[in-house]
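Predict the 3D structure for this chain.
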Amino acid sequence: MSILVKLTTCFVLCGTTMLATVHNLYASDKKIDAIVSARNHDLSISVVNDSGKFVSGSNAFCVAFIKAANAYPVSVKDVDVEFAQQVGRIQERPTRAQITESGIGNFCGRVDFGTQYYQPASYHIFVHYTDPSGTRRKCRLFLVIKHE
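Done. Predicted structure below.
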C-alpha cells in the first residue's frame, strides 16, 4: 500500500473517531454540532451547540476538551472563554462568557453577541485552561457569524 493511501485512511479514521466521540460525549435527545475546533498540544478543543452555529443575540454553547490520541474527554481546570469581535484590523475588547463544568472535559455557558452591524461578523474565541500537567494554556479559535 502506498504511503498516500495509508495517510488518507488514517486521516479518515481519526476524523470519524473524533466526530463520533464529540457526539457521544453529549448524548441526549438533542443533536449537538461542532461550530469550531482546534488542536492545542495533545488536546482537541471544540466549541459546540445544538444548532451548529452562533447567531446574533444570546447563544448557549459548550467547550469540549478531548485527548487527540484516543478521543477520550480530558479533565482540565480553571477554564475561561472570551469572545472578541474583529472589525477590520481592530480587535475589540473581549467579552467573557460565564461557564460551568457539566462533565469531565465539558464546560457549558452562554454568551450574548448583541446586535450584529457587520456582515459577516468575525470573532476570536480565546479558551484559557490549565491542562492535566498543571500548565496554563491558551487556544485561539476563529468564528464567523453570518446573517440569514
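The first strand starts at residue 33 and ends at 40.
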